[in-house]
Amino acid sequence: MIEDYLGRDDEELAQLKAARRPGRPASTRQNLLEIHQNTERDEYAAGFWVPDLEDELNLKKLKEWNGEWAQLATLKFSRISKEGFKKESSFPPKGMS
């Protein structure tokens, strides 16, 4: 799921690259997308911060979540690394918790 999420802008980025004439600099939008992707891929390498989807009670709370920031404190979170390691985390994240 994380890999799919990280690749959500790949199609737009490919279109921007294809539309750019040879020798022209990248557009602002292309630069922003590349920076955003690189930042998220670096975070994934260190551990992407996500709600724990393996906990049944946590899934129920997530489904009932109304989008309010304060309610995130009731959820369990984990850091999932690219290598597949899972580490329990807390909300709000503190450094590499």
Give your account of this protein's structure.
With 97 residues, the chain is of the alpha+beta class. The protein folds into 2 domains: 1-46, no CATH class; 48-97, no CATH class. Helices cover 44% and strands 12% of the residues. It has 4 helices and 3 strands; from the N terminus they run H-H-H-E-H-E-E. The protein has helices at residues 2-6, 10-19, 28-46, 56-64, and strands at 48-51, 77-80, 86-89. The chain has a 3-stranded antiparallel sheet. Strand 2 (77-80) and strand 3 (86-89) form a beta hairpin. It starts with a helix and ends in an 8-residue tail after the last strand. The mean pLDDT is 89.
Report the portion of residues in β strands.
5-15%
What is the total domain count? 2
Arithmetic mean of pLDDT:
89
* Cα end-to-end separation: 21 Å
Overall SS class? alpha+beta
The largest sheet, given as strand count, sense and whether it forms a barrel, is:
3 strands, antiparallel
Number of strands: 3
CA gyration radius, whole angstroms: 17 Å
**String of helices and strands:** HHHEHEE
Helix content: 40-55%
Contiguous low-pLDDT stretches (5 residues minimum) are: none
How many helices does DSSP assign? 4
What kind of oligomer do you see? single chain
